[in-house]
Structures are given as C-alpha cells and as structure tokens.
Structures
1.
Amino acid sequence: MLINHQGFEIHKAYLDEAAQAGLVEDIRKVSEQAPLFSPETRWGKKMSVRMTSAGRYGWFSDRSGYRYIERHPSGSHWPPIPESVLAIWRTLCSPQRDPDCCLVNFYGETAKMGLHQDKDEKEFSWPVLSISLGDPGRFRMGGQERGGKTHAVVLESGDVVVMGGEARLAYHGIDRIYFGRSTLLPKGGRINLTLRVVD
Ligand code: MD3
Ligand code: FE
C-alpha cells in the first residue's frame, strides 16, 4: 500500500518476512565491521539511539557538531552498503545515482530521537529513504518550521518511507518504541536504515 502526502511517501509492508530477515543479516555483518556506538550531541549528552553507517560516508556527532565522516571512530573505512539495501533505493528512488551513506539506527526499549531536520547533507534535491525493521516505532513529522503542528504514524517492520520534495526538510523524530511487538530481532528493538545522498 502506498500513501503519498506532500513528498512523504509510505510504502506499508513493502518488504516481506524473508526480505526483512535478509536485511537484518546484512546489517549484522555491517555492524561486525563497524560496531554500533552512541554519538554525543554537541551539548555532550549521549544519544539513546546506537548508530553505525555503511557507504562512502557515515554520520557522526560529538561536541564539534553533526557531520559526515569517511571513517568509523575506530579508524576503519565504513563497509560498503549491502546490495540488498541498494536494490530498494534503485527501485524506489533512482537507478542512476546510488546513496553515499546508509545510516543504521538501533533503538532499544527506551531509545528516542527528538524532532530534528536532516540538514547535514550538501544536497537536498535527492530524497531520503528509510527502512524500518523489528519493533514498531512511533514516528512524528511536522513542517519545515520548529514548533508547528505534527502528525504521528507508526512505522512497522517492512515499511519503507521516501522523503522527497517538501518533506525533505520537515521536522521529524521517533517518540517511542513498542518494544517486543515484533519477533524479527530475537532480543527485540528497532532498526532503521536511512539512505542519503550527501554531496
Ligand atoms: C523526514 N531517523 O536518522 S527515519 C534520522 O526512524 C532519522 O530512525 C528516524 O530521522 C528513524 O535522521 C526517522 C524516516 C525519515 C528519515 C529522513 C527524513 C524521515 C525524514 C528526512 C526528512 C524528513
Ligand atoms: Fe532524521
């Protein structure tokens, strides 16, 4: 099922169970090469979401601010974006231009992501694609200004979201995780993959 509202395109249940399980396996391999870590915000507070990346760039944050960097904090290059993930981008976004970064977010029972805009990329003309795996999460989305009206939608395992057009610079975040509702990840939790063109 496809719902499209002002550049916010949700493909509910886009991935079947086998595709979801395959992605989890491919992401497990990424996190073996590039272990999950909790970035610090520019105010020195650890984020509750654990992260890693694949691709030419990975997203990073510390007291110096939010940015994309070419290596994992360990010093290694980020692993390549799995083909299974690229295939989804090529179908829903573009067969011409691959993303530069696949950000992997892992949410445990109490993790959240506050309302923010994604503006660390040099390019906003490409959409951002998001893949949800594991426990459902309540996603909140507003407009392009802070403090505006917001709408909540539950993102479930297998849902794929494409944010383009006006939605690309909309405020958004994850308020809560419905921990233990999915059996995809044996220990529970939610994985979100976001594919981005950075420069
Ligand atoms: C709306 N992640 O990593 S994905 C992030 O579920 C992030 O982990 C959330 O926000 C998550 O930055 C939401 C859906 C999403 C991704 C990018 C967007 C929504 C977006 C960019 C612009 C507007
Ligand atoms: Fe975001």
2.
Amino acid sequence: MFDRLCIIGVGLIGGSIARAARKYGLSKNIIGYGRQQDQQNLEIAKRLGVIDEHYSEIEQAVQDADCVVIATPVASTESIFALLKPYWADQTIYTDVGSTKGSVVSAALKVFGAVPDNLVPAHPIAGAELSSVEASVDDLFLNKRLIITPLSHTRTEALHKIQYFWERCGSIVSVMDVKHHDAVLAATSHLPHILAFALVDLLGHKDEQSEIFKYAAGGFRDFTRIASSNPDMWRDICSANKNEIIPLLQQTREQLDKIQRLLENDDSQQLLTLFAYANTARQRFLNQFEGTMSKSITFQVQPGGRLQGEARVPGDKSMSHRSVMLGSLAEGITHVKGFLEAEDALATLQAFRDMGVEIEGPDNGCLTIHGVGKHGLKAPENELFLGNSGTSMRLLSGLLAGQPFNTVLTGDKSLSSRPMKRVTEPLALMGADIKTTEKGTAPLHITGKAGQLKGIDYVMPMASAQVKSCLLLAGMYAEGETSVTEPAPTRDHTERMLSGFSYPVNREGSKVTITAKGKLKAADIDVPSDISSAAFFLVGASIAPGSNLLLKHVGINPTRTGVIDILRLMGANIEVLNEQIVGGEPVADLHVVYSPLKGIDIPEHLVPLAIDEFPVLFIAAACAQGQTRLSGAEELRVKESDRIQVMADGLQALGVDAQPTEDGMVIQGGPIGGGVVTSQGDHRIAMSFSIAGLRANAPITILDCANVNTSFPEFKDLVKRLGLALVCDDCKDAGSTTPGIGELLPRETKGSSAEES
Ligand code: S3P
C-alpha cells in the first residue's frame, strides 16, 4: 500500500500499528518518530524489527512519507500538528488514533485554520495492558472495531486508503461523524472508566481504615479492571470529551438515585425489572459482539456414525412463546413445564418482564407466571429486543397494537431483514398504527390504539401461523369479530392454548374467529418436545445404517407432523408409540430405525405442515435413491435465511446435485462429499448439515453456527451422545476443537485491556 509509513510515537499503540503493517505487508518502509528522549525506545523498536528507521527530527521522519500516523496521546495532538505544519505535504495522507475526535478536529482548526482535506481522523477501539514497544503485538486490531470520522471535505481516496489499511490489519471499520463518535465513546468507554476510577477512589480511602480490599473478590476485580489504565491518558481523554461526558454523569446520578429509592421503598419487583433488563441488554451486547466480530461458532463433523439410544429433545418453541404470552395475560398464576430455554423463547420471556410481568424461572424448564390480566401490561421503558425470533415479533405486533402504550420492537440482523408487512398491513386494516422501515422490516414502531381496533374478516395470502396468531391476538382487543381464513392448515397452537386458558375461539373449516369478549384464566401448561428439533434425529436415524432411536414425549399436533408423513413416503421406518393428549396437545414417543430412502415429489399440502423441517428433509433427499422434488414452498425464502438458496449452495458445495427453484428444490440423491458450508446464521441449516455428516464420505465444516442456541442449545451435546462425531468451540469437550477456530472467539477474559481508549 505504502512506500514509507511514518508513525509518530511508537511507545503506545504505534508499535502495534507498525507490527500489523509489517505483518500484512502494508508498507515497504516503516519509519518511527520520537522526541530526543524517546530515541532509546526507538532503537529497541528497530532492533526488534518493528520499524526500519527512526528520527528525532520531524522533517527527516516525514520526508517522502505517503502516510503519517499520529499515535501520541490526544492531549499532544495540537503540538504534533504544529510540528508537522511546515512539512505538511499535499500528496501525503495523515491520520491519527486518538480516542476523542472533536478534540483532534479543534486542534487541526487551531493550527491550520481549517482541517486539511488529507487528514483522516480515526480511532481503533483497541488497547494493550502494557504500553511499551516490547509489549506491542501485531494482532491488536484483529476483529476489533475501528471508527473513521471524516469531515464533509475529507478526500475520498484518502478515506478509502485509510479504511483499507485498517481492514487489512483485521479491524472492522465503521464510518461516522465526529460528534456521534464522541457521544458513543463517552457512553461506552469514558463513563465506565470514570465510574471505575471513582469507585476505586472511594473504596481505596475506606480500605485505608477497614481493609476492605482484602475481602474484595472477582466482581470487584472485573468491575474495576479499567481503573488500572494510565491516569494521565484518561485525564486527557475525559477533559477532551467533557461536553459529552457531563450530561451522562448527570443521568448516572439520576439512575443511582432511582435505585436508592427502590431500595428505600423495598420495591423488589422494580429492582428486579431493572436488573433483569440490564442483564438481557448485556447479553444483547455480547451476542452482537459475537455475531459481528467472529461469526464465531464453527461445527466440524467427522463422516459416518449412526444414531442410537433414547432422548428427549427440548420443549416446543412455538408453544413456549405462546405459554409466556397467554400466561402473562391470564388472571392468576400459570405454571409452565417443558419451557424451551433457548434464546428465541427467552427473548419473549424478557419482553413480558419488560412489560411488568413477574415471571419466576426458567428453572429446568419450569416457569411460574404471575399473570397480569388482559389489560395489565405496562409500558416498557425501552424498546423490546426480540433477537432472532420472527414468531415473537409478529405475534407481539398484534398483541401490542391494541395496548394503551407505545412500543418499539427490534431484532437481530436476520430478523431485521424479514418481511413484516404481512402483519402490519392487515393490522392497519384493523386500525393499528405500526411503522416499519421503507422495506417493510423491523424496527416496528407501534402506537398503541387501545379501544380503537376493529375486527376484520381476513383471508391470508400465505399459509402462516404467525400471521394468523398475530391477528387473533389483536382480535382480543378489537371491536366486533376478527376472523382469519387460512389457505392451507397451519399450526394451531394459539387456538388450542387460548381454549386451554378458557378464552372463546371458534373454528369453522379454515376460518378462525375471535372477539374481545373473553378473559384468560390461568392454566398449567406442559410443553411437549419440539417435533422441529426431533426432525434432525428422525432424518439422522433414517439415513445412517444401524441407527435405532427412541424420541420421547414429542408433540405430534397434526398441523406439525408433515415431516413424519414426508419421511414415511420416502420409505422411512418411524413408529408412533404411546400416543396421549397432554394439556390439549397430542404427544407420543417416536421410534425410528434406519431404512433406505427413495426420492419423491413432496405433496404440496404437506408443505405448511413441515415448513421448518425442509432444511433437514433436503439432507434426507440427498441420501435417497432417485430424485426428490419440492414445490409450493416459496415461504422458505423468507425464513431466518433464504433456506432454498442457502441449502442449495451448501449441498452443491458437498457435491450434491441440488437445483434451487423459485419455490422449492430438485435434489438428485447420491454421495455426499466433505467440504465447508455456511449456515448463514440459520440455526436449522447448521443442524441439518451436521446431520449430513452421518452419510458424508469426508469431514464437513459448518460456519456460523452460533444461532443453534436460538432453538436448540443442547443439540451439539445430544447429537454427540447419540453417535455423531461433532466438534465445536463451545461443546463440553471444547479441547478437541480444531486449532484456530477458538482463536476467533471474543472471550471476555482474553485481550483484556487497561487502555480501552
Ligand atoms: C411459527 C410459524 C411458522 C414457523 C415458525 C414458527 C409459529 O412461521 O416457520 O418457525 O410459531 O407460529 P410462518 O407462520 O411464517 O409460516
């Protein structure tokens, strides 16, 4: 990229920049500049090969440099600009790494009268515990965020070069304006440092009298780690960004006062709500970190194996969502058994806690929900974050449309790209006010229209249980009748559970009707195992010779059993044993034994009844003899990923003849090879390709598997116990992980930095 890269100051972060530039071959020569008293350090840097030359005269240091990086403390930026001014060259790109950007811009204005258009202010959000050239490392910026804050007149090619430079060093680059940068950093970096310094200052003085540090443990150490940072540097940063920091200190004071009042008033419910919100907000922060920083979890499956034994897969996801929703709106206490403790259902649970519902658990799948009644929800203080869960967002949009308060629903990257107009349009016909993005996606801004919704008679254009359920929930708050007609049967858990809670709901043929005249009475719910999770094992045991598996207590609601019907049509050997009705839902044990499969044309009427199972049914098709054809399944294109495209790409990568069509796929059964596939963050695709390993002839690596936790966190351990050779970063025996994969994981203890400037 550059012939001569000059770094002003190699003692702090500059040494690591030089090492990264060296490692990734970004400059032919790397020059260090330092004051006379720094020459000894520069000599060490040269000896270590960090830089090629060094100077104490700025003129010599910057001569012919095509890029100059200012890597000195923020407070010195103005004097460095003054030093550089006489030699400032038009063709050179200048950049800096200061943690406050407003101060860099003001320093440039002071020295130059206007900010030069070849100065690109930047800020790597990375730091090192020790600051010396010996402690510098070449991977300091790997998977770390870096913010560039150009001005409107900054030269585009200079901006692009700096962006490229940092991307080559491994950073994740964002571009934002100076003010926004300073506001964001004040909240997430400067305020926490001040709080850490303040707490240690306070307790340090107390310690002098009462030795409290002696008894301080991990919590104190974690919270105060950043108070070990360089005090001079932090004085400078806080002074430079005081305009953004002072209002935040005021808000912190108010927050502490609020907590003090809650304690004084023994308001444990509100205190729990506050702590629980903080707890999930932090989880959201960690999840986002995981998602963007590393797409971290990779599965590797060794070829072969068979599935044998007995298992009970976790609780049904659809029913778990609904149990929290209806239990919260019921009068009285609802006990739930078999609740799915996975991210999607937990997102729903948190949303209801945020709306003032007291929910105890989950404890081993058990919840105790203290229902607040149909009109008892409270306005959440913040937006409701629903993670990856389409069910949660779509059902909640109906429920919240008729509340006496406003809400904002947000989700992760996948959920934020899924179509929401399918619910907001019919809700608008009922009088709801919900704003989406222009593309019709989340965030959803819902203005509560309590007492103003009107029932409609809606014929759904697609077979969707989420749309149906959304409208039924809105119908509980609407004047007159709300009817939904479905073009084909879809899962009916909402209707069944409403009846279980004594709420009147009427079905005539394909039309379901509800009114606002009804109350939900608390009821106990026993959530059966999720047939969508069992499906991986039904297919796995069907394709792997020698398999023999008993899956216990699986929900076999006829609107969900398409997977059994399709597999049986293909020749699978699945027995349904021990059928019974539990809490209004049919449940059975499923016994599956290996049997050679044959390709079929999948009957279209089975599509909505197996809608979530197609990723793994495609694997069955790849193992079957002959051709399998699926059509009428265009809905698969708008699931957690485009399941037609992502599965076709993965199957082709494994050497399978899989041709995607608009609304399905044509798969020719044959050998499955090894290779690398990506799940595109889709939990069901990650698990499906793991199952393919049973019949592959070489190892399969599956990227981007973290979202398996949205529906089936136990999958990895269970599938291994039953006979598949799977390794992954967060499996219990993570020691066997392929070297290198774990390296990408953002571990909280790793890379701890006392200078997260
Ligand atoms: C679900 C309905 C289905 C399904 C989803 C869960 C539900 O979605 O794919 O995983 O719980 O109502 P659609 O209604 O969009 O088909």
3.
Amino acid sequence: MQATLSTELEILTDKIRSRTAKVGVIGLGYVGLPLAMEFATAGFPVTGIDVDPSKVEKLKAGRSYIQDVPSGTLHPFVNSGKFRATMDFSVIAHLDTVNIAVPTPLRKTKDPDMSYIMAAAGEIAKYAHPGLLVILESTTYPGTTEEVLLPILQKSGMKVGVDFFLCFSPERVDPGNPQYQTRNIPKVVGGITPACTEIGTLFYAQALEQVVSVSNTSVAEMVKLLENTFRMINIGLANEMAMMCDRMGINVWEVIDAAATKPFGFMPFYPGPGLGGHCIPIDPFYLSWKTKQAGIEARFIELAGYINGQMPLFVVDKVQTALNKHVKPLMGSHVHILGVSYKRDIDDVRESPALDIMHLLEKRGAKVTYSDPHVPSVKFDGHRCAAEDFASSVERADCVVIVTDHKAFDYHLLVARAKLIVDTRNALKGFASEKIVRL
Ligand code: SAJ
C-alpha cells in the first residue's frame, strides 16, 4: 500500500513544482553562490546567507566576487528581488529549503574541522519548522548528515521524513571550468529517508540538468570522497613514477604521454611539485579519519598523502643538484619561482606546494623571489612577499623554477633569458636546451 505522503511532504512538493518554494543557501562561496543563481534562474525566490559582511554587502550591490558568477548575471536578480543576501539566519523561519555550502577544512592534526557545519546546523535548528528541506553540500566524512546534523535538527521534536526533510548532496563545482558548471554537472543526492531522497531529487530537478538519486546520505557522502580520493591517489602514483624515472634517467612525461595513447583502461595523471587546493589534499583525510574510527587503516590514502607531501622536498633537491652542476651552492643563490597558485590560471594559493618550496629554499639559504600574474602578493613564513617582474627576474636569477605553469608566462623569453630552469610541470615540453632540468 502506497505510504500516505505526509501533509508537509505534499505541501513542499507543490511549492517546489510551482517554483514558489523559498530557497535558502548558507555559504555564498564558489559552491553556494552559483547554486543560488541556478535556483534564481529557475524562478525560485532565493535568499543567500553568509557570515562575511563584505560578501553580503557586495552581493546587495549586485557585485559578484565569484569567477563563475558574472555580476551581469547577479545584478538583475538582486534588482528584481529574486535574490537577496543577508547575514540574518532568522530568515530560515520563512524559508522552505536550505542548502549548506560551508567550508570543511582539516585541522593541523589532519582531523576534520566540523565547526562551520555545526555553526550552520545550530542556526538552522533555531529556526527550523515543519516542511523545511535541509541539504548539506559540504564535503565531509560518511555519516556526518545522519550522526551530526540529524540529532541537532531533531531536537525540535520534528520527525525526519515526515515533518522535515534532510539530504546530502556532494558539491562538484570545478571553479573556472568552461565546460562544466553547476547546471550541467550531474547532481548526486541521498536522503535520510526515501521521502527525503524523493523531495531532494525533485528540488534539484527544477534547476539542474541531471539528478542522480542514491539510497541514503552516507552513500552520497562517500561518492564525493571516492571521486577525490581516486584523484589524489593517482596523482600520488604519478609522483612516485616521477621519482622512479628520475632515479633511472627516464623521461616520465614521455612515458605518461605514450601510456595515454591507450584508448581504454588508462587515465593520465601527471607528476608535479606537490598537491595543492582545498579539495584534493583535504577530502581523502575526511575518509581516512572516519575509517580509522571504524578500525580500518586507509593505507592508500596515507601512502599517497606521504608521497605527495614529499614532492616539494624532491623539487628543492633537484634545484640544489642543478645549481651544483653549475658550480653554485644553493646557499646565497637567487632562485626565482614561476607561479605560486595551486594550479594553473587561477589565483588560489590554498595548500599551494609553491609555499612549501619557497620555505624550504629559504631554509637552505637561497634568496627567493616569485612571479605570478594571478597572485600580486603572497604571505608565507609570516612575511608578505610581492610578485616581481617576470622578464627581469628570470634574467637575474641563478635558477628559475616553474612551479605553476600559467598560460600567461612567456616561455620563449624564459628559455632565451634564463641561466638555468627547473621545470616541475613539463611546461617546456616543446623546448630542448641544456639549461632545462625536468621533473
Ligand atoms: N595535480 C597534479 N597532477 C595531476 C592533477 C592535479 O599534480 O595530474 C595537482 C594540481 O596541480 C593541484 C592539485 O593536484 O595542485 C589539485 O588539482 P585538481 O586538478 O584536482 O584541482 P582542484 O583541487 O580544483 O580539484 C577540483 C575537484 N573538484 C571538486 O572537488 C568538486 C576535483 O574533483 C576535480 O577533478 C578537479 O577540480 C578538476 O578536475 O579540475
């Protein structure tokens, strides 16, 4: 017999189908703001909530600070009142749905920092009401939604799946990706109960092109962790291959490019100076932290984390050896770094291996400068360092290290002017010169 739909489920279903449901998004960063825009585009009234007053002020003025959300997209929604930004969580009392897209960093001890999720959950609990759909999007360990969020929301006495609805849906935003944006990236969603999964699926289907329902929140949480752990471990394998090939005098880049011609059963990953960003180096440790609690060692993750963590040291040793061949000690030499963001053509320096490399070089007595068209200044080792002019620096330096292969760099000028180059990204693939040392 068809379970009778709860009244709340029926009411919310109607509001979502008619796109009159009042949508809320907590956390207006590279995940939350694009998501808010998709629901505003679909015709829903959307309220963005953030604890950062500067973000809220900019949004109120119709000014976007997210690369994937042009102000030209944002401004009309602000003007028409379809989107409004606030710091006031009490608006949740009048919302029908709330998505949580807050940071989930790691503590220094590599333990998950759940403080942002707990803070958001605490605010939602204050204003939660019958008929509310809550969806957590922040990457986290399997069990978070059921073990952490659900108890906080159930304190209200409401019954999940009947009075309110709770889902997890992993964010898959790839900032700056010209092909895949929030709207056309398949959206996985799993609920605490079948009714939660059903309403969460219906919700996303109004604004996004493809929705993938899974049976519960833990499956949905694990999907994201598999995706990014897969990536981190394979990058670790590529880095270990680089160290093996280096020892055996084999060009690892040529090996990978040739292997990549295999039309099935292989996917190229590339060695580099280390693993940066706020996803790949972080997410897998949410998984290994949880499995440890379950008594299972996530050995692949730990090993890949170790290997990836060794790459800055491997690069610095390469620089020292290269200078040595030029009868120059690293101590007192001028080493110029090209690119400090964690990957090419972006301005994000979070967890960037360039900072580790600069720190290690300074510790060994080198004079370190950098150029990066996307990063005018960077703070490391407690001091702020400004980007230097590319052309003059590459000419002056005893050694230039390509750490992040921005497209904006003039690699022809670099090869013409530099005395010695260590290339950690195969950016100089097409160049042949004694002065180039490859990873
Ligand atoms: N890296 C390598 N070798 C590789 C690929 C990456 O050393 O073969 C390094 C990068 O230089 C960077 C780090 O790994 O330092 C992470 O790079 P990334 O390309 O994975 O970029 P992210 O951190 O922006 O990862 C995001 C993730 N997206 C989400 O979590 C939603 C990831 O799942 C995507 O696969 C990735 O973007 C992407 O493909 O661009």
4.
Amino acid sequence: MLNKIIDIVKQAGEIYKTANDDLGIEDKGSAVNLVTKYDKMIQDFLFSELEKVVPGCSFLGEEGDGNKKLTDGYCFIIDPIDGTTNFIKGFQHSAISVGLAKNKEMIIGVVLDPDLNNLFYAEKGKGAFLNGKLIHCSDCNLEQSLVLFGTCPYEHELAHKTFELTEKIFYKAIEVRRGGSAALDICYVASGKADLYYEMILRPWDWAGASVILSEAGGYAATFEKEELDADKITSLVCGNQKVLEKFYGILES
Ligand code: IPD
Ligand code: CA
Ligand code: CA
C-alpha cells in the first residue's frame, strides 16, 4: 500500500510543478487565508486516486466542504498544499501531505516537498525514510538546537504569545526559523535537519502524515498540554526528542 501511495503523491507533485502565473487565488474568509486552484486540483486528484488503492476509504481533507471528521476504518488525512502562501509567492517551501489512519490510528505518512524533490515517508513499525535513506530525530539538547516554529497565521490573537515564547526559546537555542509549512517542519525534526518545532494551533491535515514519519524516526509529538495528538481535534503541537521537549515545557510553564 505504501508504494502505491508514494506513487500517487509523486504524480500529485507533477501537478504542483505545472503551476503557472494563473494560480486562481481566492481567500477563505480572511485576506491571509488563501487557496489556489492547485490546492483544489491536487486534493481532487489525491481523493480519486487513493480511493482506488483503498476502496471504500474515507477522506479528511483541507479544501472544500467534504468530510471534516476522522472516521473508523481507513481514512486518508490530506493537505494538498501545506504552505499555500509560500506556493503563491514562489518561496519554494511547501508540501503535499498524505496520512492514512486505520481505526483512528495513524499507520502511513507520505510528505513530498515538490520544489526540492524531497520525499519523506514511513509506515508504522518499519522506520522513516527521506529519499530512500533511513532518518532519525536528533538527540541534542536545546542549547544545540535549531528551532522551528509556526505563527498560527489564521489566528492573530495567538501572535503575541507565540512570539513571547519564541523570544525565550531563541535565547536558549542556537537559532530559530519560521518555514511556513508545518508538515515540512515536522519532517525536518524527524530527519534531524532541525531539533524542535511548535505551533499553538494546527489542523489534523497539517500534521497527520508527518506524525508517522516523526514517530518512526524516534521523535515525540504532543500538545502544549502534554496530551496525545488527536486527529479529530484542532490542537497545539510540539515535537522533538525527549530532552528538548522537557526543556520546551519548562520554558512554556515559566
Ligand atoms: C499552514 C502552514 C503554516 C502553519 C499554519 C498552517 P496551509 O498550512 O502549515 O506553516 O503555520 O498553521 O495552517 O494553510 O498553508 O495549508
Ligand atoms: Ca496546512
Ligand atoms: Ca493547505
């Protein structure tokens, strides 16, 4: 099943690469929350092709009015373009993210960065890979960490708290970065390209696929309240190795 899903995600990456100047940009009720015709095209493509791999499965996808609830049985959780603002601007840091849950447990994750041709994938119990090579989360301390964070761009009321927390963390780590794709942020932590990532609000499609890759790479993810992630809810998320997470929670509570 994993190989078939990878193949479909790669084909979706080819659709992403056909993007020209006419992106068909619309806003989703706020001037900063945008969608393009490519987000919709890629989601439609993934829905129709993945249905053939797992007949009768259900879907939880960001775009459109489709089902927004996780179901029992097989359920794909899809972000057709994670990092739509980067995509629109040509910043070249976005992802196509597909997670597969079975009876509400994440079992497969495939995240493609079509600009760099980086393919992250994992199946529960079988390790995590980047372009065919096994990946591992780092085991460094916060002092040796490159830290990624998200700004909750659609919830401006969380900006102050986010930047306050980030200032505290900035002084304790090597450096901080704001990439603009939560799925890639988590995959970067999974592959040791970065060591900690956090954001105060995420939707399940932002993290579902990447969460399997992270846990198979030996990393941990939880909410700011130290609860398990739940793809039925909108929650905060923090991920990294255990040492870095402990330091993060200490700073959060300080
Ligand atoms: C967003 C990106 C961004 C994160 C936001 C997400 P979208 O997803 O992952 O990095 O900060 O919270 O909503 O809207 O580009 O799919
Ligand atoms: Ca997203
Ligand atoms: Ca998206």
